[in-house]
Amino acid sequence: MKIAVILLAALVLAISNAIHVCVDDHTDYGGADIRSFKSHGFNHCAQECHKADAQGCRSITFRKRDNQCWLKYQPFGAVFRKNNELTSANMDCDSYSTLPSWPQDFKWNSAGTPRGYTCDKIWEMKDPHTWNDNFMCWRNDRADPGLRWSMAGAIPGQKCTQIHEGAEPASHTWKDNFLCVQNNSPYHFSWATSNRVRDNQMRKGEKCIQWSETADPNTWGDNFLCNAPYHGAHVTAPLPQWPGDFKWSNAGVPKGYHCDRIWELAEPANHHWNDNFFCWRENKADPGIRFNMNGPVSNSYCVKISEGADPHTWNDNFLCIPPTSPYAFTWVFSGALKDQQYKAGKTCIQWIETADPNTWNDNYLCHYPLAHPERRHHRSQQIRVNPHLRTARLQVTKYKSLIVSSKKLVVSTRKASTTYHTQYLTARTGYVNAHKQVAVHATRLNTAKAASNKAATAANNNRVVYASNVKKIQAAKAACIKRQNAALASAKKAHTSRQNKLDAHYKKQRQAVYTVQKSYRAAVAAQNTQLTKTNAALTKAKAAAAASNKAVASYNSYVKSYNAEVAKVKHYG
Questions:
Q1: Which of 8, 102, 130, 277 sits a CA distance of 20 to 30 A from 307?
Q2: Which CATH number does 10-91 carry?
Q3: pLDDT in tens, 106-130
Q4: Segment 383-421, tens digit of pLDDT
Q5: Residue 481 — left, alpha, or beta (φ > 0 → left; ψ -120 to 50 → alpha)?
Q6: Domain regions of the chain by residue span
Q7: Burial 403-429 (b: 16+ CB within 10 A, else e)
């Protein structure tokens, strides 16, 4: 049996020993444009994208006939399509299997998804202050870090960090919000609700990213997500295969699996959607699947999850994956539609919730069988497993069908054998003619062989030199890292010592200030007491003066009367 396998034509190039790109010939990465310009060639186009890394440049499209270059903020662009005039490439494609580093590869944004990033939506539906456009993001050319948001309690089976703001009213329900990662995640987040707590975390060696929402008046200007500095590691586990590595569960997280919770909060509690999960084997890499019940997430590939018979707001629910994801899911909500998917070669996994009466017994997530998902290939270029082979294995006990198919296979094999024999004879004739031509041109062939051997020897010598240079570079890199670590340790020690001295000096000065303040307050109190006594004495003195004046006036009156009597005596005397 001849099985045709379509391989993505991808080249890995190194430009200026810094830029690694995966090239798709005859391909257009449509949309997701940052800018376009006339370049000096493909390498110049790639170098300009490398320079624009901070602006989110992740891929390019190049037209050779006029050197036109387009810079893109999304791997594979927004639309992947064939075009014989164009060559496209993803930048730094080797990092698609590398986890994002903290904090440099992460970003918070309170006004939509930023260019060049994949995001998890941070949303509290009961908070009215524009929380529907807030996102925690990471570079979209990195492996998925597994961040998942929950506004209804910690996600079972995951390592969760509570995200809260004490100043928020109880009606905004921030006390049950969590940011979760899988239990084996290398990220260990902590949450700071004030600058003081953030400073404490940073003194422990953590780095923090501020979560800010300026439209929310409830003190969202001093909240931070913190984590120890982390250099993104290479993810060695492969992505899960479809369908064998995926599983639906409507009764909690199954053993041996990692999951994303599928929950529509508008569903009544007795429909039991709080324990529904879509899962993949825990020994596989995180596929970046995220369920969102408030519309699709931009910069992601999303498929709508709906059930027309369910009245509980299932019209805005989506399952989203990153732009580098190799998966291309489809969703169907009836048995007939599922049969169409199977006829097209796809396999489906049923999403069922028996407690929900709104026909949740015929809903399926479908995909072509996928044995070896590859992040560096676009989802439309993934190598699929032949669905007919899988069907044959499933029907191995149906002997009659197997005999009929075997007979047909024998007939087709005989026809193919006849065709191949004719092709063999033709090829044999061509071989004989070619052999004759080789004999005629033996001298030229020997000369070419000698030149080839010489070139091979030179290539081997170059490999030896290259290997030696690589060892020298690695040794120099190791020495540089060692010196940097030593310098950082010394600087940290000096900084710590200086900080401790400053802290001691500050405490001493603060104690001196407290002592002066205490003395000042005692002096003020004594002065006030003395002033009170002085005022009392002054009042008594005034009263004494008034009495003295009164006595003088009385004495003067007496003297006047006395003088008058004396004058009378003298007059009559």
A1: 130
A2: 3.50.4.10
A3: 999 999 999 999 999 999 999 999 9
A4: 776 544 333 333 333 344 444 555 566 566 666 666 666
A5: alpha
A6: 10-91, 97-234, 237-386, 399-432
A7: eeeeeeeeeeeeeeeeeeeeeeeeeee
